[in-house]
Specification:
By secondary structure, the protein is α/β, with parallel strands linked by helices. The protein contains 17 helices and 22 strands. The chain folds into 3 domains: 114 residues, NAD(P)-binding Rossmann-like Domain (Rossmann fold), CATH 3.40.50.720; 178 residues, Rossmann fold; 206 residues, 60s Ribosomal Protein L30, Chain: A. Helix 4 crosses helix 15.
Length: 531
């Protein structure tokens, strides 16, 4: 059955057609974005939800989203999505961070010009029939110092445009390296230095606990007298009350804001002040940007629903379409390893340690980690997936660690998973053969070579004669066919294991017969989800 997507906000018809062209059933119902009850009533039918800013994805909506796998926002901001609730539900949340970069950067530059030359007020005055030429004395941008807080995608474009205007650019960004700053031809500085030197300050960071009120009352007091401040990023980055006071005192000469702490902003401390330019969150409001983000949403959602590629996800590691082709078998392997060890472990898990060897160590380890954890957690909750598993593990206080190493054996690469409980450590290793099939290659430190089957039986025993005969005879007498049979031992006469791939899972009475022989320390049926 083809995946089914709901578009609950206004989105380009071209984007809707992309879904159809990719073989995805799509319902275009933008009226649902403003009707929570109606959306909750129908969301259970859909695998994907494409939105813009009107749709609010609340826990109530998610509670009704029984089939939902992905929510994609045409734009950067995802404040209208409860990401914690989505993660717990196992729903991927995507955004489109690149489609409106240029548009938002251009808006910041336009706002800088507007506040430098008091263009909106001068326009309103002239429209009113006044001719107040001497009232609107502005300043040039040339040779002024622009302080850029956040030099990432959008901030980087602003830096480039500002240099084209012959401005001096200083940037504060903890993630900006000296090498990258040199390549961008900007000076990397600490925040206090930027505040003291900048004639204009523009913000281009997300809203987080670290960036909340980054221009606080205290930091505004550190700015150069006569500074002009532009915010086209996110509301809440600037203390608006403190900024209003600084504008009234004359310490700040002007401000240009496209975003506000409360939106829609029908009132705000900055409204009505002279030389304050305000726009209603227009940073991404160009025809080109809206078309770009809509097309990007359609492509990203289609890629995920059809191939498993995860792009621009906010609550799980991204896996490109190219990575998905190579990593698909390895993600399956990681899930099977986790599931194997999870089915064997009855007591609470304290830690999960994952070793990546050889070729596996060069892959997207975050995605593989999620697959391992999901495999383990599925034994407790079958509805867990790669999105929700890390959240559940964190809630339970499970510590997850990874180790990478160069090729150390005969396999080009392998993955080894070890879980730690209060009672024991248990480990299993696996690899992917050239045919793309995952294999178990080591259990409890004992080497084996076993393909993964839907129905399997795992036994542990002393290395004594008669084990193979007992297993084969018991299965045969009870009508259970063995598709494959793998044995391994630590040493002659030492600890041994057997792993049977069966056509069907034996009934409890059959397992009881094996246990009754006294030959086995452990007899454990295993089930694996085989695509």
């Amino acid at each position: 059955m083809a995946p089914k997507v709901l578009v609950s906000d206004k989105l380009s018809e071209t984007a809707v057609q992309i879904f159809r062209d990719r073989g995805i059933e799509v319902d275009f119902r933008p009226e649902l974005g403003k009707d929570k009850e109606a959306l909750a009533a129908v969301i259970g039918e859909y695998d994907g939800l494409a939105i813009r800013s009107a749709t609010k994805v609340t826990p109530t909506i998610l509670d009704n989203a029984h089939n939902l796998k992905v929510i994609a926002r045409a734009g950067i901001g995802t404040d209208n999505i409860d990401k914690d609730a989505a993660s717990k539900k196992g729903v991927i949340v995507m955004n489109t961070p690149f489609g409106n970069m240029i548009t938002t950067a251009e808006h910041a530059i336009a706002m800088m010009f507007a506040v430098a030359r008091q263009i909106p007020e001068a326009s309103a005055s002239t429209h009113a029939g006044k001719w107040e030429k001497s009232k609107f004395m502005g300043v040039e941008l040339t040779n002024k110092t622009l302080g850029v807080i956040g030099a990432g995608n959008i901030g980087g474009i602003v830096c480039d445009r500002a240099r084209g205007l012959k401005m001096k650019v200083v940037a504060y960004d903890p993630f900006l390296s000296e090498e990258k700053a040199a390549k961008m031809q900007v000076e990397k500085v600490e925040l206090d230095a930027l505040l003291a030197r900048a004639d204009f300050i523009t913000l281009h960071v997300p809203f987080t606990e670290a960036t909340k009120n980054i221009l606080s009352r205290e930091n505004l007091a550190k700015t150069k007298k006569g500074v002009r401040i532009i915010n086209c990023a996110r509301g809440g980055l600037v203390d608006e009350e403190a900024l209003a006071e600084a504008l009234k005192s004359g310490h700040v000469a002007g401000a240009a804001f496209d975003v506000f702490s409360q939106e829609p902003a029908t009132e705000n401390p900055l409204f009505g002040l002279p030389n304050v330019v305000c726009t209603p969150h227009l940073g991404a409001a160009t025809t080109e940007a809206q078309e770009n983000v809509a097309l990007q949403v359609a492509e990203q959602m289609s890629n995920y629903l059809l191939t498993g590629a995860v792009e621009n996800a906010l609550n799980m590691p991204s896996v490109t379409a190219e990575e998905a082709k190579v990593m698909g078998p390895w993600i399956s392997l990681a899930g099977h390893l986790g599931n194997f060890i999870g089915q064997l472990t009855d007591e609470p898990i304290k830690a999960i340690n994952i070793l990546y060897d050889g070729a596996a160590s060069d892959m997207n380890l975050e995605a593989l980690n999620c697959a391992v954890v999901a495999g383990i957690m599925k034994t407790v909750n079958p509805d867990v997936n790669m999105v929700s598993a890390p959240v559940i593990a964190k809630e339970r206080g499970v510590k997850i660690s990874t180790t990478s190493q160069d090729k150390s054996g005969v396999f080009e690469g392998y993955v080894k998973v070890t879980v730690v409980t209060d009672k024991r450590e248990r480990s299993i290793g696996g690899t992917v053969f050239s045919d793309g099939k995952p294999r178990f290659i080591q259990i409890k430190g004992i080497n084996i070579d076993a393909e993964v089957g839907r129905h399997m039986l795992y036994t542990t025993n002393a290395d004594v004669p008669g084990i193979i005969g007992t297993l084969g005879q018991t299965m045969g007498e009870n009508g259970v066919n063995i598709a494959n049979f793998t044995l391994g031992r630590s040493a002659a006469g030492g600890e041994a294991i057997a792993l049977l791939y069966l056509d069907a899972q034996p009934e409890e009475a059959v397992l009881a017969k094996l246990k009754a022989t006294g030959m086995f320390q452990q007899v454990k049926p295993l089930e694996f989800d085989i695509a």
